[in-house]
Specification:
It is a single chain. The protein has 2 domains: 116 residues, Rieske Iron-sulfur Protein (3-layer Sandwich); 283 residues, Naphthalene 1,2-dioxygenase Alpha Subunit, Chain A, domain 1 (Alpha-Beta Complex), CATH 3.90.380. The protein starts with 23 loop residues before the first helix and ends with a helix. The longest helix has 21 residues. Helix 10 runs antiparallel to helix 11. The strands form 4 sheets. Strands 11, 12, 13, 14, 15, 16, 17, 18 and 19 form a 9-stranded antiparallel sheet that branches. The radius of gyration is 25 Å and the shape is globular. The protein is α+β, with helices and mostly antiparallel strands and 449 residues long.
Length: 449
């Protein structure tokens, strides 16, 4: 008989479990769960602006069924689906000049959930006022910004400052909003941003040729809620340092997708996208983002629906199964893990250090919130516009005799990141100028070594 004991490492299918368990602290996001409560302490995009209209639309966020609309005054409402009177669905409500009216009995609500009118009742002002005081429609504050609708779904007395990132202020950058849906848990999608190694295999033929080089990798944890993963690659006489960025809980940026291949000099080129991964529920999520196009982003030719799909996941999303097998993108990789990944069956290695770091911090924030300590907010990272790091830098740094190229790549990465971090004493264009000047000085040294 064949040996099927666990000690026999060959053909071990019979001996190994088919499924593991998910890490519920990370994956469960309904209200009342530790992660659900943590996520509700932050602003999240919940819709494209163009989908907020005079006809109510269904929106599901963090396991909650909500109704989104824009009233006649241009105000956006994000409210609970069920009317508090007799639980009719407000997806069939009538949007008014101010607020929304239930289709069933005409109860009229403002965008903040207060009752404006209860038709067909006795004319007792005292009775109506009592109902209005004791009954409300659940509603959440919203903020519309550059084609995205953001919402805060946490305790109303603790609304944080709406974060303003310096990526919003890059001169001549065109930011085009988009969304991409994933049929899996949000953590599976978020993981990829601090996993720079995956681009060398999943995207080696989808973006530029340089992506297919493995290179050297480094990870950084900064400010308790910021995590960076760098990929440093040799492309002929150049060294390309690509920086991916995560600001907890779900803000992500990276280097460019199409404008950089490592062959052309580039100093602190900025991110292809500015993006949030938002749970719909525990088995679905949506990436809401802007594609960034311009001299420091990606070329304007990719500012199309298909271009942004490719930017988001490497390939157009709606493809045949055969095409998906031939050239899988991020959708295939993350959805292939299952609706919720078996986290406790994973075998993390050195290249997964960024994933381990940020997951551990997320879980710590959950535990601290449970003890009454609110999480740090992105707006607290620095005064003014929040500094961001998602970028590409390509400098001339020829190989040196007597020095292993791996050592040179690590040295270039360290010096490039130090120059970028040192720029944090400044803001805006002055920060960019300081970083680029420092990088140019470094490059001169690399050339002459």
């Amino acid at each position: 008989m064949p040996d099927t004991t666990p000690e026999n490492r060959e053909f071990a299918g019979y001996c190994l479990p088919l499924r593991g368990e998910s890490d519920k602290l990370l994956s469960e996001t309904d209200r009342g769960t530790p992660m659900g409560d943590l996520l509700r302490r932050f602003w999240h995009p919940v819709s494209l602006s163009r989908d907020a209209g005079k006809k109510p639309g269904l929106v599901r966020v963090l396991g909650e069924d909500l109704v989104l609309f824009r009233d006649g005054g241009g105000n956006i409402g994000l409210v609970h689906k069920q009317c508090p009177h007799r639980r009719a669905s407000l997806e069939f409500g009538r949007v008014s000049e101010r607020g929304i009216r239930c289709c069933y009995h005409g109860w009229h609500f403002d965008t903040d959930g207060t009752i404006l009118d209860i038709p067909g009742q006795p004319a007792s002002v005292e009775t109506l006022d009592k109902v209005k005081q004791n009954c409300r429609l659940g509603a959440y504050p919203t903020c519309e910004f550059r084609g995205l609708v953001f919402a805060y779904m946490g305790p109303p007395a603790e609304i944080p400052e709406f974060p303003h990132y310096d990526a919003y202020d890059i001169p001549d950058m065109v930011m085009s909003p988009y969304m991409a849906e994933f049929s899996c848990n949000w953590i599976q999608v978020l993981d990829a941003i601090v996993d720079p190694l995956h681009t060398a295999f999943l995207h080696e033929r989808q973006f530029t040729e340089g992506f297919g080089t493995v290179g050297e990798y480094e990870f950084y944890e900064r400010d308790k809620i910021r995590f960076l993963g760098t990929a440093t690659r040799r492309v002929k006489d150049n060294v390309w340092v690509r920086v991916n960025e995560l600001i907890l809980p779900n803000f992500t940026q990276s280097g460019a997708a199409f404008s950089t291949d490592g062959t052309q000099r580039r100093l602190f080129g900025r991110s292809a996208f500015t993006r949030w991964v938002v749970p719909v529920d525990d088995v679905r999520c949506i990436a809401y983002a802007w594609g960034n196009f311009g001299e420091r982003g990606d070329p304007h030719v990719f500012n199309t629906p298909e271009g942004m799909e490719r930017m988001e996941q490497g390939e157009p999303i709606n493809r045949s199964y055969s095409e998906r097998q031939e050239s899988p993108g991020d959708v295939e990789a993350v959805e292939g893990m299952g609706r919720i990944s078996d986290h406790f069956a994973e075998h993390l290695v050195a290249s997964d250090r960024g994933i381990a770091l940020y997951r551990r911090r997320l879980k710590k924030l959950c535990r601290e919130l449970d003890k009454g300590k609110p999480p740090p907010q992105p707006a607290s990272l620095n005064s003014g516009a929040i500094h961001t790091y998602g970028s590409d830098t390509v400098v001339e740094a020829p190989a040196r005799a007597g020095l292993a190229d791996t050592e040179l790549l690590r040295s270039v990465n360290e010096q490039v990141m130090t120059a970028i971090f040192n720029g944090d004493r400044y803001s805006g264009e002055r920060r960019d100028q300081h970083i680029c000047s420092s990088l140019q000085t470094l490059e001169n040294g690399f050339r002459n070594s």
